[in-house]
Automatic annotation (TrEMBL):
The lineage of its organism: Bacteria, Pseudomonadati, Pseudomonadota, Alphaproteobacteria, Hyphomicrobiales. PROSITE patterns: RIBOSOMAL_L31. The gene is rpmE. This is Large ribosomal subunit protein bL31. Keywords: Ribonucleoprotein, Ribosomal protein, RNA-binding, rRNA-binding. The keyword tRNA processing does not apply. NCBIfam families: L31, PRK00528.1. PANTHER family: 50S RIBOSOMAL PROTEIN L31, CHLOROPLASTIC, LARGE RIBOSOMAL SUBUNIT PROTEIN BL31A.
Length: 73
């Protein structure tokens, strides 16, 4: 490997939104720093399912359901 082209890899502490902590290795910050997460897999709707609604813009979803609604297995 070439010298001085790779970032420093060190141990940091990560604090989740619910207060749980764990240590991991990262190139973020410097050795011993603490990363406080604002969004994590325990709180973000992409991982938890959330209350996402499918928006029907211009009747596209209803038009699709009208055309192909009876094709259920």
């Amino acid at each position: 490997m070439k010298a001085d082209i790779h970032p420093e890899y060190h141990k940091i502490k990560v604090v989740m939104t619910d207060g749980t902590e764990y240590e991991t290795f990262s190139t973020w910050g410097s050795a011993g720093d603490t990363m406080n997460l604002e969004i994590d897999p325990k709180s973000h709707p992409a991982w938890t399912g959330g209350n996402q609604q499918l928006m029907d813009r211009g009747g596209r979803v209803s038009k699709f359901n009208k055309r192909f609604g009876g094709l259920g297995l």
